[in-house]
Design brief:
By secondary structure, the chain is α/β, with parallel strands linked by helices. It is built from 10 helices and 15 strands. The strands form 2 sheets. It has an 11-stranded mixed beta sheet, with helices on both faces. It has a 4-stranded parallel beta sheet with strand order 12-15-13-14, with helices on one face. The chain is globular.
Length: about 325
Amino acid sequence: MNQSDQTTERLDAETAGISRAAELLQTGQLVAFPSETVYGLGGDARNADAVAAIFEAKNRPSFNPLIVHVASLKAARDIAHVPRWAEPLAAAFWPGALTLVLPSLGVLPDIVTAGHPTIAVRVPAHPVALALLEAFDGPLAGPSANPSGRISPTTAEHVADGLTGRIAGILDGGSAPVGVESTIIGGEPPTLLRPGGISVEDIEAVLCEPLRPHSPAQIPNTPGQLTSHYAPTASVRLNAETAQGKEILLGFGAIKGEQSLSPSGDLREAAAQLFAKLRALDRQGRPIAVAPIPDHGLGRAINDRLRRAAAPRHDQHTMTASKDLSQGY
């Protein structure tokens, strides 16, 4: 079936809806599902055709590897080697908004990892995602459920806006409570590959050592490194105290703006609101200016997404697999 001609079922996050979503996945079709971070676009990670359909539905570059969602650490061991450094992180933060890039056991199709010897794995904390993984009984490849490079979806409506007619189902679990994607850690010594829903400070407290900063030259298979990503159609200007010209200002804390990520300056609230606010402002057809965000805790993840939203746009299908652009999850 042509991916653009599918009927997309809207499924409630009840037993019948979850069972139907698992049934669709078991037949090689794609289902968007809620997680605590953003909505993921699920496909059977054991089925190369299903994984290829994810790339097609999202218009995602094929050099871009995928995160695999599993139900438990035990299930992660079925597809990856879990080294000593990863054990305490899995124990502390799974289920949760942490992805670990681990040595692959090579049991999943190469398209999942874009041919790399490592695989990105996480156990989501959302009860609907976990119920779906249990019903499906297997690993799910699950990038964000949006057209590639665009604003990530935090509600079922956001998914429908971008992927209706391209996927088989959308499992509606309400708004994603964290609102930004998972933190990604990999390598030895442990390296921050993408800031996200678990703070660097919390991870370093568990490891009892600082995370190594990411360098594309050192780790050519790092996730989350596409320069332009999470992007609205409108241009984005960062660290703005006021709007200029036709801009609309997205505020934070004391900088009010026409809308605000968090009037009280709460980073947790700002993270949860980020993608929804960008979508709302983008619909107004004006350039977007964004107030400064503190660069600590969840602020690191927010600023990472904002920098990528503001980056110069490229046609992703003309990119070569360069060390600094080719490996974003």
